[in-house]
User: Fold these one by one.
Assistant:
Number 1:
Amino acid sequence: MQTSTTSNLTPQQQAVDRPGGLLSDSVRDKPRLLSIVLPAFNEARNLAILLPELSLKLSGQAQQLELLVIDDGSSDDTVLVVQSLMAQGLPVRLLRLSRNFGKEAALCAGLDAADGDAVIIMDSDGQHPISSALQMLEDWRAGFDVVYAVQKGRSESQSLARRSYTKVFYWLMRHGSRVDMPPNAGDFRLLDRKVVLVLRRLPERARYMKGLFAWVGFKAKALEYVPDARLHGESTFGYMQLLSFAVVGLTAFTKMPLRLVSVLGLMVSLVSVGFGFWIVMEKAVFGQPVSGFTTLAASITFLAGVQLLCLGIIAEYLGRVFDEVKQRPLYVTQDLTPPLQAPESK
């Protein structure tokens, strides 16, 4: 279930659809090869349904289709299901990682292996509508290099706490970075070949893909969609994973936390000077005795907390530097099926 209306999109997102924007006529032919990148972790039951459906509905949209499944260290029958579908003649490729490296690393592995002129990233749980993928292809043929899906009504379905955390995160990103990262846009998107090649050149190990997708730029369009129900199982993506991604995104794309720490230090210093001046005035002018142990203990505890907070933020940035200088690979490939036989160029 999908809609291409733009009523809830930002003015920047809607601008590309107004007269005077990009050409509405088709400027690209069908892709020679269309790659669908599907990161998977314990998605055997979902892939058994999703892959045949993708093959049926997308095969006619390109001269050739490849369904690239990235097995991110699954412990279920994901590999066996994919191999069985390959044996049945479906246009499926399998990339197995040596262990679970996480979704961001699996996405990068898929983009590194994808050979398509257009690459669509989709989840393996069946929640990303195929009809939206078809619309993405239409927009790609109309001249857009990036088409990213924006989940309709996502904010309204979240708790108040989660909406508040999200607003703070995007405020920090918006005011501390030159990257314009659209809210409620996830990994479900289409990328032109030239965009994929640029993403492959980015060397950092701390991968926050939403930020990297926005950083590379190119002609982009937002597409609203309503997610389908998950085919089987439950998502294991909880608040701790969200917090971890938020920390990676902030430390990778903005110095705003460091600047806020500097402002906090300045404010504490000014308050301390003012408080000290007030104590002197009380003693010298009003003859009041200097406050005792309680005030001193509270001041020391407060300042110790501020110092630890500042050290923690600095440590996060230092930890990113530590990860980068080790230069370990982002992922390790166990095996990869060879590319499908490419169609002859016309």
Number 2:
Amino acid sequence: MKIGFIGLGIMGRPMALNLKKAGHDLIVPERASLTDEIRAAATVVADAKAVAAAAEIVILMVPDTPDVEQVLFGPGGVAEGLKPGTLVIDMSSISPTATKDFARRINAKGCDYLDAPVSGGEVGAKNATLTIMVGGPKPAFERALPLFQAMGKNITLVGEANGAGQTCKVANQIIVALNIQAVSEAFVFAAKAGADPAKVREALMGGFANSRILEVHAERMIKRTFAPGFRIRLHQKDLNLALNAAREMGMSLPNTAIAQQMFSAVVAAGGADLDHSAMVQAIETLAAAKVAQD
């Protein structure tokens, strides 16, 4: 298939390359940031409008709700180049409410729309093991399924209404943030008490406390490897989506709010672009102790 791909960042680039490996033709918009690898793998066209005009399916993987709106409906955007029957798939993590509006506007052009945010970070994107949470009509999902299978492993049609995938992703981000906070507190506690954090991690991985956060993020905390797999500022954006939606629904997410404040403390110290495992730095400051030395 001819696949337009817009958003070739930390995760988008390996996702697009996995589609190429699966035998699909890539079409991407010109950007100064395009790598030589992408230029060799794809047909480069002028803008998002030209991508949509040349593609059967257009995939977006950009940072935030305003970015999706700009790519879709801004000057030279996807909507200007769409032909009836084109499928638009937004794999960004954005507002479920805005997603419903974007879908209606794309549907009015005779095109289908899926919201299909992902989880798994840079590692999952490179290894094609992403979890993909999809909202939208089942026929569109079935059409896109071979593409999803080239990028991920755990692929779920959460609901046939647009926005269902984004709602699931917000729930995922709440769970991930609270797990990072729990692991941060546990390891700062262990270090302050004089235990070897590496040995504590080894012991806990054999028990009920084991999780992907304990396996991956605790190791980053111990080794002080905070190069971004998923940046704090992006996780903050996702928690804002959760807190704003909770406010609209008249409900409380107290621990989510605390996790957001922990991220904000790291950002205030200049850590917005660190990996979200760097939340541990805020807990360390409160405890006057470190999991390990930088």
Number 3:
Amino acid sequence: MIPLAAVTRRFPARPQLSGAQSGALMAMGAMSSVQLGLALSVPLFAQLGAVGTAGLRLAWAGVLLLVMVRPRPRDFERRDLLACGLLGLVTAGMVMLFMLSAARIPLGTASALEFLGPLSISLLRPGGGRKHWAALAAVGVVLLTEPWRGGIDPAGLGFALGAAACWAGYILLTQRVGDQVTGLKGLAISLPVAGVVAGLVAAPSELARATWPLLLVMLGLAALSTVLPFSLEFLALRRLNAGAFGTLMSLEPAIALLMGVLVLGQIPGPAPAAGVVLVVIAGAGATRSGGREATAAAEAEEAEEAEPEVRVPALCA
């Protein structure tokens, strides 16, 4: 019997997505979930109003995240808690201001104006190679939403621009919190803050009309259109730089158009169809060059999810 050399064999590894690719898939899932939830929320505006619907959605989302994640104070440093609180305020502002804008100007116009927030991040951050993707996305968004077809109410315009500023702050703060706090603990602090703020704004006039069946419906919409997409965005911003993420989010008006076709029966014209093509091209270009270096929080999370290497025992003859 001659002992054979120990043979160690690793089973073929599963194909791994790059950071930019996985981040792009998460962002796409987040945008699809948001737009589907928005389409399903439209019938509720007549009962709760736009502000009341947004307030209940954020309040339920905050409760769900607290129950699911159960963050503990010792998991955070003081500066992290402050960043989470600011993120909650910005999130509430983004959602509430957009709803107020959409109640006064056409939804497509409001969406195009709100997109100025992430687009400005793409244009202002260093790295000129990404600017042509942002410019292409901007042209696509204009064609897609056709803002020239609707009148601009001054208050609606102001609310939309306020939502754009909040969206830009949301991207930067989400990336900051996600880089420093593992898992979804940061989101489990920021969303309850957003829920409290939105609830305080909506409570005096809107929430009194809520019924128990309506509250249960809003619970489901909170999971679909807030908890799931915000969680995916939170994780995506660990894998994409803010500029690439901002450009990739130009796909959201295209997804909104698709949901309008599938859910609301809204058929796009030639200009919106051309806009879809342009933003898809811009999103693909931004994704290809938008990966981030791994952060400490991301590395810790990936280490927990890593599977142990499988080895075959040594053979003897």
